[in-house]
Q: What sequence folds into this?
């Protein structure tokens, strides 16, 4: 039996156990409800994916110690954040000694010796930008998709591509200046007055465009990923629904479609990711074949959890809106 057939049988069994998977009238959700659903998905995705990156960084720091001023990338499953090693010694979470023998050993030793909360070290500051960026991205995508469908028709294959591109460009444009400021604040302990002086000086010397200095490499990686991700996600979701005989996708269909489309997009955009990483960290030590597996391990579950949680949240609000319409 082929893998595809086994996957279809699994999805059919799950759908039969899902009493809500049958056809129903589509009730629209409001932009605020989309924002709440995407915000919830963003937080859950970060909580589930961040430990993978924390362990990866701890292993990297053990094998190639971080000296003061060295850059490294921290990913919470939603965004990659450029971090700067702030101090010498072992005070920072990523410098704590562990004598890890591998990934599983690192997980177990961190939990046993430092407490389970250490698996989410460094997460809170990154959520300040990652959650709003995700909310903007997903809400804009859905709003643009609805607008394009009303103008072009329901079945135009270009709609998820166009909506994905525009939504991602918008999110990156909003967040880029904030990410620049966050990185600067981390690399040197600025007061708010000093930060204001830094921004004012930068704008006066280089113009407003200087606040978007990291915009181009981010867009070159994220926009192709977004276009391919949303196109494949919509195609896979429709295909699974057709094979399962469903009018609306179930949680497992959303989860599986998100994981597969995220994996496809991650593989296709790997060269852009390597270039962006090298430019950010200024360390030309990465090789594409060594980057693929860690990228897939991070992106596939992040995409699956985020999109399935988001769709689940929208479905919840649809039911609430439907009940209100009945009264």
A:
């Amino acid at each position: 039996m082929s893998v595809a057939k086994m996957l279809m049988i699994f999805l059919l069994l799950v759908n039969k156990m899902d009493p809500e998977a049958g056809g129903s009238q589509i009730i629209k959700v409001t932009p605020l409800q989309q924002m709440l659903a995407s915000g919830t998905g963003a937080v859950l995705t970060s909580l589930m994916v961040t430990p993978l990156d924390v362990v990866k960084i701890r292993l990297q720091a053990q094998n190639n110690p971080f000296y003061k001023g060295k850059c490294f990338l921290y990913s919470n499953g939603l965004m990659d954040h450029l971090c700067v090693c702030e101090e010498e010694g072992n005070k920072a979470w990523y410098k704590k000694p562990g004598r890890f023998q591998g990934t599983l050993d690192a997980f177990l030793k961190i939990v046993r010796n430092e407490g389970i909360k250490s698996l989410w070290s460094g997460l809170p500051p990154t959520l300040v930008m990652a959650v709003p960026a995700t909310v903007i991205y997903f809400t804009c995508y859905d709003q643009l998709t609805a607008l394009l469908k009303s103008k072009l028709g329901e079945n135009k294959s270009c709609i998820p591509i166009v909506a994905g591109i525009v939504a991602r460009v918008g999110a990156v444009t909003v967040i880029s200046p904030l990410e620049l400021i966050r990185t600067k604040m981390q690399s040197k302990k600025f007061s708010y007055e000093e930060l204001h002086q830094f921004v004012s000086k930068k704008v006066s010397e280089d113009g407003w465009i200087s606040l978007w200095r990291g915009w181009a490499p981010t867009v070159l990686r994220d926009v192709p990923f977004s276009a391919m991700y949303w196109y494949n996600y919509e195609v896979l979701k429709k295909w699974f629904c057709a094979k399962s005989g469903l009018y609306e996708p179930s949680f497992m269909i959303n989860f599986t479609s998100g994981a597969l489309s995220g994996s496809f997009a991650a593989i296709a955009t790997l060269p852009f990711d390597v270039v962006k990483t090298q430019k950010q960290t200024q360390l030309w030590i990465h090789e594409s074949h060594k980057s693929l597996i860690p990228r897939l391990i991070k992106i596939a579950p992040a995409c699956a959890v985020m999109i399935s949680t988001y769709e689940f949240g929208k479905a919840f609000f649809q039911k609430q809106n439907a009940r209100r319409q009945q009264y």
Notes: Residues 31-69+123-316 form a domain with the Mitochondrial carrier fold fold (CATH 1.50.40). Confidence is low (pLDDT under 50) at residues 13-24, 279-289. The chain has one domain: 31-69+123-316.
